[in-house]
Amino acid sequence: RGRRASILSRSIRGLEDVEWDPSILMSSLITPGSRISVLIRDAVPSDEPSWRKLWADYVAFYEAEVPEEVTAKTWERLIRKQDGFFCRVAETSGEVCGFSLSVLHAGTWTTDPICYLEDLFVDPEHRGRGIGEALIRDLVAQCKAKGWSRLYWHTRASNTTARSVYDRFTSADDFVRYRLVF
């Protein structure tokens, strides 16, 4: 406790003083510019129905299809924290209204773990209240507290709503993604 890492402070503006106690699995935040209280916590098995609804909306947003067996396996890996996967959920007034799905992995340019924020989603009815930003701040705090070397994510260039949130943390870099699907 009390150990503060400055791993991301050079690349993520305004978060140099974020502290996170790794012994606490929840963090309650009053989102900036609003009076709503947001609880960010690890997902638990009883969150599955809420997560599945949000997941279906997320997949639909990207005009994609994910087979049920993949959704079921994803939930299982998230809850069991298998293969580096973990899920944090945002809760307001007892309702799960958003999630971040991340993967911890090793890298070749650092010996410390790297956190990939693979999916982030907030229910459209709860957007504009700082919940997406709170989910990212939660990950930043965990990165710093746990000694993870990087946090990264990507989105579609046309997703201007999400990018306006992401730009508060850091600028997009100049890397281009290539992908083969088998």
Largest sheet data = 6 strands, mixed
Q: Indicate the multimeric state.
A: single chain
Strand percent estimate: 15-25%
> Alpha-carbon distance between the termini?
44 Å
Strand order of the largest sheet: 1-2-3-4-5-6
Tally of individual helices: 4
- What is the general shape? globular
- Structural category is alpha+beta
Walkthrough of the structure:
With 182 residues, the protein is of the alpha+beta class. Helices cover 27% and strands 23% of the residues. It is built from 4 helices and 6 strands, in the order ββααβββαβα. The protein has helices spanning 48-61, 68-80, 131-146, 160-166; strands spanning 26-30, 37-42, 85-92, 95-105, 114-122, 150-152. The chain has a 6-stranded mixed β-sheet with strand order 1-2-3-4-5-6, sandwiched between helices. β5 (114-122), α3 (131-146) and β6 (150-152) form a beta-alpha-beta unit. The longest helix is centred in the C-terminal third of the chain and has 16 residues, at 131-146. The chain is globular and about 40 Å long.
Helix and strand topology:
Elements: E1 26-30, E2 37-42, H1 48-61, H2 68-80, E3 85-92, E4 95-105, E5 114-122, H3 131-146, E6 150-152, H4 160-166
Question: Concise description?
Answer:
It contains four helices and six strands. The protein is an alpha+beta fold and 182 residues long.
Search tags:
6 strands; disordered N terminus; globular; alpha+beta; single chain; 182 residues
